[in-house]
Amino acid sequence: MTNKLAVFDFDSTLMDGETLEFFAKELGIGEKVKAITDRAMRGELDFFESLTERVSYLKGLPISKVDEICHNLPLMNGAEEVVKGLQAKGYKVVCFSGGFRNATTYYSEILGLDGEFANILHVKDGLLTGQVGGEMMFNDSKGQMLKRLQKLLNVTRENTLAVGDGANDLSMFKYASKTIAFCAKPIVKEKASIIIDEKDLSKILKYIK
User: Fold this and answer.
1) Is 11 a catalytic residue?
2) Is 9 known to be catalytic?
3) What is the CATH number of domain 4-207?
4) Where are the chain's structural domains?
């Protein structure tokens, strides 16, 4: 049997919104953080620099509040349907997120994902320190992780699907034959083989044999 792999971004792809912006809203700095996120997703800022700057503003936020927010994020319409549909077609379905495991680990269980890779917020004495580390910190992190997974799972580029909306998802596209820009920024649409502008992930299934 042929091994197949589908990789999804989390923020604004599997989930309808940006996790960092939900945190920022709690602290009353939503617009400030959103402006940085928007520039990073358009490819105007280095992802690492934009991520570390945005997380620095979260210093002092209780981890209990972080988890409460992360466990109440709105899933994208069609998220459960597309995961189950792809798995029924023989795909391993994995999430790569420049966001945080507090959210991806939780929703990985709900969606039945085969794996999730994300960043980790540093916590001390129950509060965020404003620092972050992890597997998805840089512009090319998703592409590098995809390449490693393909080797591990013995999956070819031809049998790989990548779905995302922002500039830091582009590094995945060169390792996948099917690339989907989902309600994406122009820079991502330019590089995608499939463009979906409706907020319904189940639309992906009609493109997949």
Assistant:
1) yes
2) yes
3) 3.40.50.1000
4) 4-207
